[in-house]
Design a protein that fits this description.
single chain, 83 residues, mainly alpha, Non-ribosomal Peptide Synthetase Peptidyl Carrier Protein, Chain A, 4 helices, globular
């Protein structure tokens, strides 16, 4: 699996993000990469949130948190704050 500096402590989060990013854009994944830059839209963000809730958190993440995600780091920080 790919490791990204700053996300090495959260390989599960990185894996869930990576599976949503088109293979041609995966080289762009880094902590400060925007979801838009990775070709992700709000529906993709919701899908990532659902995966995180089911596979990592075990509970629902507040909608306002998911709506505030702009970067890969935002997602990782949200997971860290809700675990």
């Amino acid at each position: 699996m790919t490791t990204i500096r700053g996300l090495a402590a959260m390989p599960e989060v990185l894996a869930l993000i990576t599976k949503r990013v088109d293979v041609t854009r995966r080289h762009l994944i880094r902590p400060d990469a925007t979801l838009r830059e990775l070709g992700l839209n709000p529906v993709d963000a919701l899908s990532i949130a659902c995966d995180l809730e089911e596979e990592i958190l075990g509970r629902e993440m507040p909608d306002h948190v998911v709506g505030s995600w702009l970067t890969v780091s935002d997602i990782a920080a949200s997971v860290a704050a809700h675990t």
